[in-house]
Amino acid sequence: MAVSRRMVAIVIVGVVGAAVACGGGTSSPPAVETTSAPAPTSQVLAQLRGDWQAQKDTMMKIADAMPEARFGYKSTPPQRNYGEQIMHVALTNVELLKVLGGKAAAPTFTAESAKTKSEILKALADSYDYGTALLGEQSEASVLQPAKDSPPWLGPASHARIIWTLLAHTMDIYGQMAVYLRLNGIVPPASRGV
After folding, report:
1. 3-state DSSP call for residue 106?
2. How many domains, in total, are found in the chain?
3. Per-residue model confidence (pLDDT) at position 193
4. For the domain that residue 61 is a member of, what is the CATH number?
5. Average pLDDT for residues 7-34, to the nearest whole number?
6. Distances (CA, A) of 52 to 5, 28, 76, 127, 135
7. pTM attached to this predicted model
């Protein structure tokens, strides 16, 4: 429950931050400069880095919580199985992170190359490490710049919006994984002791 509230707060902060960064939000008269003090620095990048690392930690724990023998479990036939859910996050992370450009090399795993629990967990970790490396290449100014190749389904997006989109997408999958665990009698790690 605490993780869910935190992730909702992250998404809300991200949406509000995107609106403000894009000139949205409430309209108010321009501020009158009365001192020569420098403008406060943005904390968007620092918050994105923190949220990205927190989500990696959460996802690694929930991914590891299911025994390998149950990685093929799915709640209904049309659903992805547990291992496929994890790989969906890893593959989506990498593909959308590529939009940021950057010098960091993208991981080269595929859905077919990661089959065992350890291979799937490594792919997930590698996808987050790739994002960490790309965020490390950003500055507070560049993270708010438009991504050159934002996918058509997302529309124009800043580098920050790409990360916010991935954070929100992954929480959708996290929610499904939590149900899979509970259907197998396992309490998700983030819910233990709550």
Report:
1. coil
2. 1
3. 77
4. 1.20.120.450
5. 42
6. 16, 32, 30, 11, 9
7. 0.78
